């Protein structure tokens, strides 16, 4: 539409020029139309219709582009509005000129920019722009994962204060055993440590960013405890970072160049999109797993993804696995891990094993096998390709502490990530807190055990309840969540149907869960429920709300 | 020969020499490209048997790290870091290691540890143990996920503290603020947000050697030094900026902003209000950003008044959205271990992007709680800041006086935890090489680690940065004696 409009305005203008021999009232016009007049010469002189339409279209396109980039600037958008509104009502003979002089104003601004030296002219319009990659970061926020969290923040459920609020089942943090943590903090080692250990020079001055040796030894002990002492970790191969997000970011920086890719079996943790891609420029290639295989990683599919990527010219540098898996909560078997190691060896790629929930295996029979144990017996060459991410705050249910660890046998990775930790360091007060919390082996054992029991309790309750509602969950042995199959409730078997149901759960049921599409699951209708936020008292409330949603869904169908 | 024969036909048929050389060259190039791309992942063996693979293990070769991680992992060649390493291996101790290396290379301060010690021992526990309504300790206030950009209370306290430190002439808006885990991530995040890979920032040199790592390691942003000279007391001029800007543009690199420290690190001088106006005007003219690193704002001991870039930005004369300020508590409150810094930006997009990027370097909630009560204890802060300034000034006078007696002058400075020492008289040759020789001598003969100007990209050789705030009074005579010895041996 706009194109015809500009054409018309141009032709009406040339008509008037023809009739008036370019003289009548020209003085006023030429002042305002310095940019357009030479163009008209070009148009009239040669190509006629084609050039006459192509050039204005091109200009209009640039104008739009320019406006879009500067949209924040109110004065500009105001101009645009008035310009377009006057274009729409161009039946008046006087109006086209106004339109054109206005767009001409923009054009002078556009073309004249670099050459103009007048500061006053430049300053109000020319707002300085941020880098294009920062724009990507700003925009990336509308996935349901983050929308849901925002809703919970606005209207959080509280048993006594706000019983109608939204219940958080989306965020993997551990809430229900806090009374136990109270013991830890208030009676136990922390207090002493803070007052004894925290002599001011101890916590205030510069300390190695990658962690004090003392802390590393404590962490290594804690990790061994979490893996039931089947493997011993060497503290000198640990690098501490502020949170698992930065651990993964540092690893992807060190293992892959910008434009390279990692294979990630899906459904996967929704955080990878940010951690891996945002700043490092590394791509993720999703390798879909299906419910028919119980969401196990299939080597055939992995192979295919690898070769397809290679064919497209994308270099694969590694594979990221979660064990216990996020969002399913299942454990990878020893055979599975060997198969993945074989795959990585054949293709000569790295393995990032994300074991942040290793200490939260709640099923009695579930045997957690760390990738470290698998490579422990292998040759050096294989050890060098395995990197383990471990999160202290998840297993201690203390995410506010923001501390995680990278465990690797690769010297280059270790020395590079040690230097990079200055960019995401663990502060010394935190380090001392952690040392006192986890260097007491008796406490750690008691903690891990109680943690398991409580997770187990809520998990069985929730899964039982969901089953009564006709919602099946995959078997989950670890982590804070279960993976529920709700495809019976969605109206259309598609991502849209899934998001619809998610909206219903959020608005009608007032519970925030993570839809499978956030985890890049290719089958619609799966949802991740984080039950670690709940106490056993809350489970019936959640189930009631889900029942309500189920009923509305069924009545619609 | 199947491949070559049809080609020959083409060549003979038409172009002769030209096509005949062009086509093979092309083919060869394509072949190289193809080989290069295939080289690192060798063809997968058809077998998948484990035992078979084991024997092949060695022939596959080691798995490689990314090419950008290699320079990071490599041992550094900057004298700044070499010196720090050497001190770590053999630190001076008055009692136990009298022959150790004295640290003058790290800008940290122990001048007011007595005050901090007192505050911490009285308030540390209460500040973390937030009580809930029923009077019990509420663990969830420190254990759970909180907004990555920092608790609002902390940002309010920070804003208040910053305006107090910067003379009270400017107030800071907590909603423009993002709390980071120290000044280092703050700089990296800003560089990431303001410049794309391959873009450049102008930076008046000599500058803080750590910027090299903070900015170049991961963001891929280049730093273009704008050389300042001793004749201007190392103050940046607009004409120098202009020249560097034009040169960069000629070379085809896009300049996205200017980064500078005020009070400057390593020189310690303070930019005047007029210079700040000039810089901002220049930035506006070129439509680029301004990053002002004001991490030493509270460590001003001279008579000159410190003016924050924020004050100039809100004066109304300029478009303030291009101004970004970095601040931190590591230097002014001498708590680098807490790793608390802040990005203060007038640009909404930058604030939003930085908030999201804080998932990688946020301050732990317990530490935030400590900081909230520390910063809101105004009586303590007043007392602390007064003695902090007073004690730096005393130490500075003592240190500079000692050097003067040896005939070694210092540049004029008003702020920072260091002074900028002119050791040109000790150089054997007036060049970078001579300076590094002197650095090596200071390190191994005199056993002093001072940062040489080359590490700071100073264009004139012979200048050294000496941080004096971590020294005890008794240490200063020791240092002077060591330098004297060195000077005498150099002159003889």
Summarize the structure.
Chain A is α/β, with parallel strands linked by helices and 557 residues long. Chain A has 25 helices and 13 strands.
Keywords:
heterodimer, A: 557 residues, alpha/beta, Aspartate Aminotransferase, domain 1, Aspartate Aminotransferase, domain 2, 2 domains, 7-stranded mixed beta sheet, 25 helices, 13 strands, disordered N terminus, B: 492 residues, 3-stranded antiparallel beta sheet, 18 helices, 12 strands, 46% helix
Please tell me about this protein's structure:
The complex is a heterodimer of chains A (557) and B (492). Chain A has helices at residues 2-19, 26-32, 36-45, 49-69, 74-88, 95-112, 119-125, 132-139, 144-154, 178-186, 189-197, 200-204, 213-226, 244-255, 272-277, 299-311, 334-347, 371-376, 380-383, 392-395, 411-420, 428-438, 441-468, 495-507, 538-556; strands spanning 167-168, 238-241, 261-266, 283-288, 316-322, 350-354, 386-391, 404-408, 472-473, 481-485, 511-512, 514-515, 526-530. Chain A is an alpha/beta fold. Chain A has two domains: 137-176 and 447-555, Aspartate Aminotransferase, domain 1 (Alpha-Beta Complex), CATH 3.90.1150; 189-445, Type I PLP-dependent aspartate aminotransferase-like (Major domain) (Aspartate Aminotransferase, domain 2, 3-Layer(aba) Sandwich), CATH 3.40.640. In chain A, α15 links the parallel β3 (261-266) and β4 (283-288). Chain A is globular and about 75 Å long. Chain B is α/β, with parallel strands linked by helices and 492 residues long. The N and C termini of chain B lie far apart (77 Å). Chain B has a seven-stranded mixed beta sheet, sandwiched between helices. A three-stranded antiparallel beta sheet of chain B has the order 9-12-11. Chain B is built from 18 helices and twelve strands. Chains A and B meet through α7, α8, α10, α11 and α12 of A and α3, α4, α6, α7 and α9 of B. Chain B: Belongs to the class-I pyridoxal-phosphate-dependent aminotransferase family.
């Amino acid at each position: 539409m706009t194109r015809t409009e500009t054409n018309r305005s141009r032709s009406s203008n040339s008509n008037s020029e023809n009739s008036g021999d370019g003289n009548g009232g020209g003085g006023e016009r030429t002042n305002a139309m310095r940019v357009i007049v030479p163009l008209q010469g070009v148009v009239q002189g040669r190509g006629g219709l084609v050039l006459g339409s192509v050039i204005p279209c091109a200009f209009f396109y640039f104008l739009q582009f320019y406006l879009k980039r500067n949209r924040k600037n109110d004065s500009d958008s105001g101009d645009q509005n008035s310009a377009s509104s006057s274009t729409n009502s161009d039946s008046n003979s006087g109006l086209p000129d106004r339109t054109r002089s206005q767009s001409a104003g923009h054009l002078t601004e556009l073309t004249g920019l670099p050459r103009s030296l007048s500061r006053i002219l430049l300053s109000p319009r020319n707002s300085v722009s941020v880098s294009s990659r920062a724009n990507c970061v700003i925009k990336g926020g509308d996935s349901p994962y983050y929308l849901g969290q925002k809703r919970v923040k606005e209207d959080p459920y509280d048993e006594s204060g706000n019983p109608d609020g939204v219940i958080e089942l989306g965020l993997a943090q551990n809430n229900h055993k806090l009374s136990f943590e109270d013991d830890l903090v208030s009676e136990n080692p922390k207090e002493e440590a803070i007052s004894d250990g925290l002599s001011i020079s101890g916590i205030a001055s510069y300390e190695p960013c990658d962690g004090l040796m003392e802390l590393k030894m404590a962490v290594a002990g804690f990790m061994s405890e979490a893996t039931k002492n089947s493997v011993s970790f060497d503290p000198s191969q640990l690098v501490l970072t502020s949170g698992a997000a930065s651990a993964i970011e540092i690893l992807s920086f060190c293992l892959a160049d910008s434009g390279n890719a990692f294979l990630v079996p899906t459904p996967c943790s929704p955080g990878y999109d940010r951690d891996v891609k945002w700043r490092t420029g590394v791509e993720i290639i999703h390798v879909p797993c299906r419910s028919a295989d119980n969401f196990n990683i299939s080597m055939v599919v992995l192979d295919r993804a690898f070769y397809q990527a290679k064919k497209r010219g994308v270099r694969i540098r590694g594979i990221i696995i979660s064990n216990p898996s996020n969002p399913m909560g299942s454990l990878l078997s020893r055979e599975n891990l060997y198969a993945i190691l074989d795959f990585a060896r054949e293709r000569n790629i790295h393995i990032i094993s994300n074991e942040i929930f290793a200490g939260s295996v709640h099923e009695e029979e579930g045997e957690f096998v760390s990738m470290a144990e698998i490579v422990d017996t292998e040759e050096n060459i294989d050890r060098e390709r395995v990197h383990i991410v471990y999160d202290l705050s998840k297993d201690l249910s203390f995410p506010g502490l923001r501390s995680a660890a990278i465990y690797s046998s690769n010297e280059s990775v270790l020395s590079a990530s040690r230097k990079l930790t200055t960019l995401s360091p663990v502060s010394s007060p935190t380090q001392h807190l952690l040392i006192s919390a986890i260097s007491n082996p008796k406490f750690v054992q008691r903690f891990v055990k109680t943690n398991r029991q409580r997770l187990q309790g809520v998990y069985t309750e929730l899964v039982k309840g969901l089953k009564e509602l006709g919602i099946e969950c995959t078997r989950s042995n670890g982590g804070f969540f279960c993976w529920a199959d709700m495809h019976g409730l969605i109206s259309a078997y598609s991502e849209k149907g899934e998001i619809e149901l998610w909206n219903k759960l959020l608005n009608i049921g007032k519970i925030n869960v993570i839809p499978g599409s956030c985890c890049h699951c290719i089958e619609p209708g799966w949802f991740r429920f984080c039950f670690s936020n709940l106490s056993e008292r809350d489970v019936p409330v959640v189930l009631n709300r889900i029942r309500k949603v189920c009923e509305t869904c069924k009545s619609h169908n | 020969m199947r491949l070559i024969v049809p080609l020959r036909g083409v060549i003979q048929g038409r172009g002769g020499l030209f096509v005949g050389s062009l086509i093979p060259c092309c083919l060869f190039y394509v072949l190289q490209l193809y080989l290069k791309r295939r080289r690192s992942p060798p063809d997968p063996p058809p077998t998948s048997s484990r035992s078979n693979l084991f024997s092949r293990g060695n022939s596959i070769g080691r798995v490689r790290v990314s090419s950008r991680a290699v320079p990071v992992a490599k041992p550094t060649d900057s004298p700044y870091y070499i010196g720090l390493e050497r001190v770590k291996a053999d630190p001076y101790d008055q009692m136990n290691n009298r022959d150790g290396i004295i640290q003058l290379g790290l800008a940290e301060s122990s001048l007011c540890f007595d005050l901090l010690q007192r505050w911490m021992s009285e308030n540390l526990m209460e500040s973390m143990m937030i009580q809930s309504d029923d009077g019990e300790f509420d663990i969830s206030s420190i254990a759970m996920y909180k907004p990555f950009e920092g608790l609002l209370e902390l940002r309010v306290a920070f804003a208040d503290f910053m305006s107090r430190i910067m003379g009270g002439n400017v107030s800071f808006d907590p909603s423009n603020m993002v709390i980071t885990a120290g000044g280092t991530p703050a700089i990296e995040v800003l560089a990431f947000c303001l410049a794309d890979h391959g873009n450049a920032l102008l930076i008046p040199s000599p500058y803080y050697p750590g910027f090299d790592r903070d900015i170049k390691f991961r963001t891929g942003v280049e730093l273009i030094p704008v050389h300042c000279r001793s004749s201007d007391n190392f103050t940046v001029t607009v004409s120098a900026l202009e020249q560097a800007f034009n040169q960069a543009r000629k070379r085809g690199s896009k300049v996205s902003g200017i980064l500078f420290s005020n009070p400057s690190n390593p020189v310690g001088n303070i930019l005047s209000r007029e210079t700040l106006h000039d810089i901002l005007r220049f930035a506006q003219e070129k439509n680029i950003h301004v990053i002002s690193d004001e991490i030493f704002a509270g460590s001003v001991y001279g008579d000159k008044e410190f003016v924050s870039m924020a004050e100039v930005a809100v004066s109304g004369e300029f478009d303030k959205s291009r101004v970004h300020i970095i601040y931190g508590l590591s230097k002014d409150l001498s708590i680098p271990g807490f790793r608390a810094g802040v990005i203060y930006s007038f640009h909404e997009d930058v604030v939003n992007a930085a908030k999201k990027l804080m998932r990688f370097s946020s301050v732990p909630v317990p530490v935030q709680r400590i900081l909230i009560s520390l910063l809101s204890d105004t009586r303590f802060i007043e007392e602390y800041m007064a003695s902090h300034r007073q004690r730096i000034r005393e130490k500075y006078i003592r240190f500079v006086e000692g050097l003067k007696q040896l005939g070694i002058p210092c540049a004029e400075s008003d702020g920072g935890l260091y002074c900028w020492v002119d050791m040109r008289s000790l150089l054997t040759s007036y060049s970078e090489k001579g300076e590094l020789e002197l650095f090596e001598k200071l390190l191994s003969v005199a056993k002093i680690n001072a940062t040489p100007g080359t590490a700071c990209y100073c264009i004139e050789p012979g200048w050294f940065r000496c941080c004096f705030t971590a020294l005890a009074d008794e240490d200063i005579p020791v240092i002077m004696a060591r330098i004297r010895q060195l000077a005498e041996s150099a002159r003889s």
